[in-house]
Amino acid sequence: MDANLTPERWSLEDLFGGPQSPGFKRALEELDEKAAALEEARDELNPDLPPERFLEIVRQVEELSDLMHRVYATAGLWFYEDTQNPEAQALLARVRQKAAEIENRALFFELWFKDLPDEAAARLIAAAGERYRYWLEQMRSWKPYTLSEGEEKIVNLKNATGRSALDTLYDTITSRYKFTLEVDGESVTLTRGELMVYVRDPRPEVRAAAYRELYRVYAEDAPVLAQIYQNIVSDWKNEYLEVRGFKSAIAVRNKINDVPDAVVETLLAVSRENAPLFQRYFRLKARVLGMERLRRYDVYAPVTRAEKRYPYAEARAMVDQAFRAFDPRFAELAERVFARR
Question: Which SUPFAM superfamilies match (predicted)?
Fold first, then answer.
């Protein structure tokens, strides 16, 4: 384990050799080849499809999806390495469009499986085994909110240049922000991540200054950011509530998270009933901090001071130990982040 932290540029070479490599270009070609191979199975799909053949098709869908996610991850990581890089921006847009096209070519399988009679679907789910059970069951659970094939294709293409593009635009704008804060008599320039460290500073004037600087910088682009937000919200409402038939915006998120509406409603109701407990906590915190009333700036204020610092090697060892207690494989993958950047 390295004893010191040496900041350096991360490497994407494990992903096809990098976003500008021949391997990445080959992966894009392979997507079309795998999609074409899957499309050949369309005429075979029927309620009496043999389980063995169904499992073969499911694996084709999985391989296509896995490759598409790896391609998307490569473009996304390159973009987030430097959101101002025009080449990375262009590649991400191209890959997003490719993903929509590939999803549309594979869409027929999902629509067919959702529309199967319950008995036929149960037979095929059982044959597919535990590896695919949850995925297949979740797929069918979306049937009440599914449109026709033509309509679904339009939505996929719309999202490529709509909601997803707006998310990327927001990230492109806000990731270039720089913040200036006076700390210990010295003016420092910070990223948002670095700035937010100071909202937990024990000094109330530093916490307030950090929040005010955050608001000041974002306010400069307020009209643009507001338009992005309004259009994302409108797009969500139009697609999911007006077109797909969800009863509320939060019901969409609950469905995506596979959490019943009743569970979330119970959670919210119990939280409202116990709001006085939260209010009491903040009154107590204000008393401990010697304040009459907490300001927004004081929500994350520490109530005790901790001066302990951990050497980098020790901190890494602690993280590694925690990961290994959770799952050894997870720890191994985390170690690769350090070893291979």
Answer: Metalloproteases ('zincins'), catalytic domain
Q: Report the distance separating Cα 252 and Cα 243, nearest Å.
A: 12
CATH number at residue 109: 1.20.140.70
How far apart are the C-alpha atoms of 221 and 216, rounded to whole Å? 10
The structure tokens 């070609």 sit at 29
Q: Answer whether residue 325 is part of any domain.
A: no
- What is the pTM assigned to this prediction? 0.86
What is the span of the domain harbouring residue 240?
173-279
The tens-digit pLDDT sequence of the chain (341 residues) is 455 556 667 778 888 888 989 999 999 999 999 999 999 999 999 999 999 999 999 999 999 999 999 999 999 999 999 999 999 999 999 999 999 999 999 999 999 999 999 999 999 999 999 999 999 999 999 999 999 999 999 999 999 989 999 999 999 999 999 999 999 999 999 999 999 999 999 999 999 999 999 999 999 999 999 999 999 999 999 999 999 999 999 999 999 999 999 999 999 999 999 999 999 999 999 999 999 999 999 999 998 877 788 898 899 999 999 999 999 999 999 998 877 76
Residue 196, number of CB atoms within 10 A of its CB: 15
State the DSSP code for 4: S
Residue-wise DSSP of 253-322 = HHHHTT--HHHHHHHHHHHHHTHHHHHHHHHHHHHHTT-SS--GGGTT--SS-------HHHHHHHHHHH
